[in-house]
């Protein structure tokens, strides 16, 4: 039986998966290097190699935005007038990001047994981030506890972003394929604009949202 490999572009790194595994077996800097590695690794004469370049550009660009906002927030102190503005922006954009993932991307991935665990885990990590956001809203920006809790938010969020980029997004590319991801990307882009508009109209709304 021919061996089957999936070669997936994640940011600037090409990841190689065997068809019977959920973890990458090789990473490299170019598509050709990945394909050559598959040919060398395979025990059969002609391995089947599937190359996926479909991206989740909207989500990865939002991740970069969150990292920049988190850094800017960490650089503020209780006397900094920009702290409230940066936090409000981060909160609104995070809610929009979580909403489009939970309404569009995660349900699509839950159709596949290989993604059930990481999707369930991601839902829970969203919930933890939302709880922290709501706790920060209650606190005064001048409260010493605010900075400490914001640091906890940063640690949790950066961990979550890293897991999505290293695990969930590669699975999405592998399981859904470029065409489906492109369609979902259009839906997410449109829905994101709607949620951001709602957040602007209701800046004091809670991050934790009712389920169902």
Task: Describe the model.
- With 212 residues, the chain is of the alpha+beta class.
- It has 2 domains: 4-52; 57-201, nmb1532 protein domain like (Four Helix Bundle (Hemerythrin (Met), subunit A)), CATH 1.20.120.520.
- 65% of the residues lie in helices and 10% in strands.
- The chain contains 5 helices and 4 strands, in the order E-E-E-H-E-H-H-H-H.
- It has a 4-stranded mixed β-sheet, with helices on both faces.
- A hairpin with a 7-residue loop joins strand 2 and strand 3 (26-28).
- Helix 2 runs antiparallel to helix 3.
- The mean pLDDT is 88.
Order of strands side by side in the largest beta sheet? 3-2-1-4
- Please identify, by name, the CATH architecture of the largest domain: Up-down Bundle
- CATH top level of the largest domain is Mainly Alpha
Net shape: elongated
Overall average residue pLDDT: 88
Structural class: alpha+beta
What is the share of helical residues?
55-70%
Q: Hey, roughly how much beta strand do the residues contain?
A: 5-15%
What is the count of β-strands? 4
Number of domains: 2
Compile the SSE list and pairings:
Elements: E1 4-10, E2 13-18, E3 26-28, H1 31-41, E4 48-52, H2 57-74, H3 82-109, H4 116-138, H5 144-201
Parallel strand pairs: 1-4
Antiparallel strand pairs: 1-2, 2-3
Any descriptors?
2 domains; alpha+beta; single chain; 212 residues; 5 helices; Four Helix Bundle (Hemerythrin (Met), subunit A)
How is this structure best summarized?
With 212 residues, this protein is α+β, with helices and mostly antiparallel strands. The chain has helices at 31-41, 57-74, 82-109, 116-138, 144-201, and strands at 4-10, 13-18, 26-28, 48-52.
């Amino acid at each position: 039986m021919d061996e089957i490999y999936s070669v997936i572009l994640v940011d600037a790194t090409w990841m190689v998966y065997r068809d019977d595994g959920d973890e990458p077996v090789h990473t490299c800097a170019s598509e050709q290097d990945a394909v050559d590695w598959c040919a060398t690794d395979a025990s059969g004469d002609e391995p089947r190699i599937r190359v996926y370049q479909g991206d989740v550009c909207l989500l990865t660009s939002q991740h970069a935005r969150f990292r920049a906002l988190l850094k800017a927030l960490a650089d503020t102190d209780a006397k900094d007038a920009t702290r409230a503005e940066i936090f409000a922006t981060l909160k609104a954009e995070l809610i929009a990001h979580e909403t489009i993932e939970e309404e569009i991307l995660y349900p699509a991935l839950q159709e596949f047994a290989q993604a059930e665990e990481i999707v369930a885990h991601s839902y829970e990590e969203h919930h933890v981030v939302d709880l922290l956001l709501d706790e920060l809203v209650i606190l005064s920006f001048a409260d010493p506890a605010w900075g400490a809790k914001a640091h906890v938010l940063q640690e949790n969020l950066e961990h979550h972003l890293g897991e999505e980029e290293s695990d969930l997004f590669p699975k999405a590319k592998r399981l859904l394929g470029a065409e489906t991801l492109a369609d979902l990307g259009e839906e997410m882009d449109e829905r994101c604009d709607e949620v951001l508009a709602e957040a602007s109209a209701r800046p004091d709304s809670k991050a934790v949202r009712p389920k169902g």
